[in-house]
What we know:
Layout: E1 10-14, H1 19-35, E2 39-43, H2 49-58, E3 63-67, H3 68-73, H4 86-101, E4 103-105, E5 115-119, H5 121-127, H6 132-140, E6 148-150, H7 152-156, H8 161-167, H9 174-177, E7 181-183, H10 186-194, E8 200-204, H11 209-212, E9 216-217, E10 230-235, H12 236-241, H13 243-249, H14 258-269, H15 275-285
Parallel strand pairs: 1-2, 6-7, 6-8
Antiparallel strand pairs: 3-10, 4-10, 5-8, 5-9
Helix pairs in contact: 1-13, 1-15
Amino acid sequence: MGVLGGSSSEIQVSSKRFAEQKILGYTAIEALKQNSELNPVDETGLGGSMQNFKALSSGEVDAYWEYTGTAWYTEPPKHEKTIDDPKKLYQKVKQEFKQQHGLIFLNRAPFNNTFVLMANPDWVEETGVESISDLAEYINSGNTDFRMAFTAEFLGRADGWKGVAKTYNFEKALEKLKPNIKQVGIGLTYQIVGKGDADVGLGFNTNPNIPKYDLVVLQDDKSHFPVYNPAPLVSQKVLDENPAVKQTLNPIGPKIGTDQIRKLNKNVSIDNMEPRKVAQNFLKEEGLI
Length: 289
């Protein structure tokens, strides 16, 4: 792609600390470096959601990738109401962040880094459970002896395991299910379920260990879990001063689907590749640089 005009000013691009966020951060940095006259400054790995949000709001950084669900539930003004339509949620946070914070969401990626219940493929074949509604039916039919692996936080949160039971109507069976739940860190769950030491576990939809262990993501057919689509979040001031930022970053998000991000995450988390190199390869493959 050709270089887009604009000032030669620096653009500070930050990210959160986990692999997926660093990859997204570097897609922005590399695209700006190759396709504009701007000078992107690497602030990836800055901190958590609120640290990045505060840094962007104060002008300490100019852009980072934020998830729509995080913007809606965690950052001011914070909402409790669930919006399960990805487009509606994106439009809501886009409008709200522009009006209240002077921050602009650019085009979002279609992948959804939300919580998922995932199951061992042999267990799925044996039981025919492919969605959370199927799981509820299976439980309500008296099957309460299967093994689960969840985090302590998921078990404690109102929107966690108890919330799933409420949404899918198997609350009455929670006590009977309790003895078969292992409390584990989320990083271990994929292997535990994959090796058959548990039948069902909690994971993140974009984790590369899902395909690695051939795990089956149970369809959340009642949309219990929130939507987390990422999009570049940039200050209005920076966009006004540097139109090339929008032109350069807008084409990236729509190119990243679930299979794509799992592959990119695998490159970093399992294959130990550098996030910058993974981002560069992706942009080249997609014709974005």
